[in-house]
Amino acid sequence: MPIPSYVMLKELRKLHLRRYQDPIDESLRGWNWDRPPVKPRAYLGLTINEVASYCPTRRDVWLRRITKVVPEVNEALKLGSLIHDVIHTTIEYFRKYVSSSVDILNAYNDVVSEVLKNFTIPEQFSGWVINLIKYVVIQLLAEVSWSSVGDGINPWLPWISEVRVDGSLLGLSKNLRIDAITGSNVVVDFKIAKPSENHRIAITAYAMALEANLEVPIDYGLIIYINGLNNTPKVSVESIYISSDLRKDFIDARDELIDMVISEREPPKATSCSPTCPFRNSCR
Ligand code: SF4
């Protein structure tokens, strides 16, 4: 995993305390998808980007769904997608590497060069992306080295990358893609962005969709922020308790969006727009 286990364990301890102090209202579990308030008013197959939109007025959803504007695939979107793919590929290659009987001390050079063969990286970002791959490999090597001299448990092994989950029971898309789930049922989301409230709504939606499908409690999430573009990659973690309040926030956001789409009500243009909004040229 791209964060050390000791960081994860420290965050988990904080989350356990929060859950103890503020238990989750069981009626807000995803498996109650067949009754209010978890049951959606309509099943529109909303994406996570729609429910947890970066647009302050949700005008992006109106543009896409009602006026059928196609978003531009701009440089920011391409870079975000590339970074996600690079991280997943690095983890996948590293797993394969250490599962074979090769000496793991060669993993650093071998995995970095193998991963790079899979991507065409824009020149201006290539140094940064290579540093990110190296960072992830170093974290994974540290985990494996430690477990080989410790109790023999590989803490990174239960980390499942790119998990597909059907969100339709909650009115979401059938093809939600979760970045990772750890062995202790923690949902992980990578963000190439500054921290934002909508990221908390997104991870709550993933957790409740998992609960709806698996019928096991998902109480915690980790948002791993990757920033420092054009400089040394900076990785930080925000641990999220999927509390009753966050669950209500997700349900409210989803239901307001359903009402807006069904009524075709046009939201106003936001007063402050992201410079990377893919609708900037078509939003008037
Ligand atoms: S340009 Fe602004 S108002 Fe329009 S969709 Fe983008 S963020 Fe929303």
Essential attributes:
single chain; 284 residues; alpha+beta; Lambda Exonuclease, Chain A; five-stranded mixed β-sheet; 12% strand; globular; binds iron/sulfur cluster
What is the share of helical residues? 40-55%
Bound molecules: iron/sulfur cluster
Going by helix content, strand content and strand pairing, the class is alpha+beta
Compute the CA-based radius of gyration: 20 Å
CATH architecture designation: Alpha-Beta Complex
How many helices does DSSP assign?
8
Classified by CATH, the class is Alpha Beta
Query: In whole angstroms, how far apart are the ends?
Result: 43 Å
CATH topology, by name, is: Lambda Exonuclease, Chain A
Instruction: Supply the number of structural domains.
Output: 1
Mean pLDDT: 89
Order of helices and strands: HHHHHHEEEHEEH
Strand order of the largest sheet: 1-2-3-4-5
Low-confidence stretches: 149-153
Q: How many β-strand runs? A: 5
Largest sheet: 5 strands, mixed
